[in-house]
Amino acid sequence: MPTLVSVNVGLPRDVPWDGRVVHTGAWKEPVTGPRTVRRLNIDGDGQGDLGGHGGENRAVLVYQLASYRYWATELGREDLSPGNFGENLTVEGLPDDEVCIGDRYRIGDAVLEVTQPRVTCYRAGMRLGEPRMAALLVAHGRPGFYCRVITEGEIEAGQDIVKVADGPEHVTVAEADALLYLPGHSREALERALRVPALSAGWQGSFRSMLEESTSPPPAWQGFRPLTVSGIRAESSVIRSVTLTSPDGAPLPNRRPGQSIALRLGPGIVRNYSLSNDPGAPDYRISVKLEEHGAGSGFIHRDLKVGNTVDVAAPRGAFVLRDGAGPVLLISAGVGITPVLSMLHALAVSRRDVWWLHGARNGAQRAFAEEVATLLNRLSDSHSRVLYSSPDAGDADYDGVGRISVATLSDLGVPSTADAYLCGPAAFMADLKSGLADFGLAPDRIHSETFGATAGFTPGIDSVQVAPHVPAGTPGSGPEVQFARSAVAAPFGPPSATLLEFAEACDVPVRWSCRTGVCHNCETALVAGVVRYDPEPLEPPADGNILICCAQPSEDVVVDL
Ligand code: FES
């Protein structure tokens, strides 16, 4: 009979780490006597970073005494004691290769349901003074697991743990962990795991993305290739389209609606722009807004001519129209129209219901009005709302004054089952994303693309928004690193040991969790160049991508950050 060995709790604290301060609840201490397990926490317990831990699906973390004995031998540690792995419940029995997602256990008065393996996170390494720990937990198949609380109640060390229900599909914790983090996962295994209703929403989202990736082709070519400027056209007073064609006239490879391309516009000037035309067209079209002091947009608006040659990287990006038959909501502001216009081209030959919501300053700055109207007319069921924030006296062809907001959705009667695609300035996106969630759209149906660099994700660390810049101090002597979305280029060098650390030194927004090549949160497209790894990732990233947390440039590189 499995037993509860120890109940461990701890409130979040600030811990110095690597020159920064990490707010973490990884420090837990055993308590004696009964404790009440509640929907979000055990009494006296808390999580520091609710993005990575905690919430209903991750209310209670369980770790096994057998794994303590294993790590004592493996790491030569005699100092490990309950709570050291950040777990709330230290248990005898319940091994990761037997416990299944969806299993339910009664302890004392409480009933818990297994929802997912432990989140692979650098803080396990901080807590144990072993930086490799996040990778080791996965590589050795001993992650432990999270539970949601089905029935709140009192528990106490020494109680028996009684299984009261089997999870469907019999996906063990170790299997689910390997599915996400280790190579060799099959489509069937992913689909099986997705049939377990108890699997947390976060892991379901990850498995769905992996299923989609398994059908996504790698970038059509590596690095840059020359394309010819075959057309330039003013779309509004501030937006100009550039059409790019293969020099030999052959059709360019297809792309997914919503993807973007990087262009090398001069020494140290690589810029990323969404494709705005039909994803099946033989050429590529970008549409660029002239920005004050923008080196890239300034070159395109003032210097680029038909007949010029430009180095272009293959289409990339995960902001793409998903397959499906349900309603679609395309929301954009200003030049954010470009990726959703490409999606509208793809949707115009479908039978899906489409809602088109667009905001512009005024008629002079609005682009693609005729093209959008033609595409919407092809659909049997389409709805459109165009708002101007500051219309001119002569403007006529718009639906109202103001900005696109959730109130606009309510007016139009948008169904909450729609898939929403948003593109525009950061403030517009932040308002709408939270508004859409309040409106009732499921988080995994809200897809967004911001101008420039994507938002960072730095678990447990407050990040201050600073404009990207070259690193302080003496320039490095290594290969040049260009961050395409952030418009920063500088030679690589110490003290940065990885591309992640170099990006952080440049205040380029980054996403990461384990920092040891396990979780793939830092996976980023490599537009050009070659990297080497130290340490080697547990599972290589998709073709054309790199894990920046353990990558160093072997030659000049362009990274899609
Ligand atoms: S941060 Fe986890 S793989 Fe890079």
TrEMBL record:
MOSC domain: residues covered: 29-164
All copies of domain 2Fe-2S ferredoxin-type, residue ranges: 479-561
Highest taxon in the source lineage: Bacteria
One family name in Pfam for this protein: NAD_binding_1
Residue ranges of every copy of the FAD-binding FR-type domain listed in the record: 222-322
PROSITE patterns reported for this sequence: 2FE2S_FER_2 (PS51085), FAD_FR (PS51384), MOSC (PS51340)
UniProt xrefs under SUPFAM superfamilies: 2Fe-2S ferredoxin-like, Ferredoxin reductase-like, C-terminal NADP-linked domain, PK beta-barrel domain-like, Riboflavin synthase domain-like
PANTHER family, per database record: PROTEIN YIIM
Protein name: MOSC and FAD-binding oxidoreductase domain-containing protein
Upper lineage: Bacteria, Bacillati, Actinomycetota, Actinomycetes, Mycobacteriales
